[in-house]
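[step 3/7] inverse_fold.run input=structure_tokens len=232
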């Protein structure tokens, strides 16, 4: 019902697809726009300063609950610009007028990254689908639009979830292999202590365990392996 009322009142209200554009702003380092000097010419602009401010604001929104009242109480600049949110009456040919709004801060320089970020963020705050925002992805670090509100996914749609799972499995396998190699090195090191040989322990252990001497050196340096001492 709330969303339906908003659609009746706002002439150009935020739509679900606007969230996709907002996510793009959170992820892109550069944007392409048409040159104001030459019609049809495309210009590449560094968007990273704005992106940084946007990500800071979004993180504050997440940390608040999300809770808009708490968010504004924790950010005086955001609260000031939110209070100056400007609405204008849009004439219609019916008996019900509609509203348009402007979110770009008036008291800040238009080219300032924070001013641009606040303009985007204030519109995000009134988007009824904003709680579908997910991220940053645990694998690639990008923000994304969640398919539903119920499940708090930590990976963006696509291959990131499977890639992270694969990386985790590989890391677990490497950890197991490392542990087994440590046990093997320790076993042969103990045998060297009582063996009748003048060969240095690393060379002796490496010849029998097929473990590289460099690996043994690092294991001792990292205090994972105790350097053996000859008995007697």
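[step 3/7] decode complete -> sequence:
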């Amino acid at each position: 019902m709330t969303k339906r009322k908003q659609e009746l009142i706002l002439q150009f209200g935020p739509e679900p697809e606007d969230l996709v554009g907002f996510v793009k702003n959170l992820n892109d380092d550069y944007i392409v726009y048409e040159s104001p000097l030459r019609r049809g010419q495309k210009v590449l602009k560094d968007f990273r300063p704005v992106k940084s401010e946007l990500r800071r604001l979004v993180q504050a929104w997440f940390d608040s609950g999300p809770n808009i009242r708490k968010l504004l109480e924790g950010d005086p600049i955001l609260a000031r610009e939110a209070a100056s949110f400007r609405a204008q009456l849009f004439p219609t040919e019916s008996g019900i007028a509609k509203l348009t709004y402007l979110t770009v801060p008036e008291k800040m320089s238009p080219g300032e990254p924070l001013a641009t970020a606040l303009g985007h963020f204030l519109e995000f705050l009134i988007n009824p689908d904003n709680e579908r925002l997910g991220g940053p992805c645990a694998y690639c670090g990008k923000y994304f639009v969640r398919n539903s509100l119920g499940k708090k996914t930590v990976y963006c749609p696509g291959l990131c979830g499977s890639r992270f799972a694969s990386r985790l499995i590989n890391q677990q396998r490497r950890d197991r292999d490392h542990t087994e190699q440590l046990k093997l090195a320790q076993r042969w090191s103990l045998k060297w202590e009582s063996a009748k040989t003048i060969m240095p322990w690393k060379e002796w252990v490496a010849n029998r365990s097929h473990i590289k001497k460099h690996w043994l050196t690092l294991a001792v340096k990292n205090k994972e392996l105790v350097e053996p001492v000859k008995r007697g």
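[step 4/7] annotate
The chain has two domains: 2-131, 163-221.
The chain has a mean pLDDT of 86.
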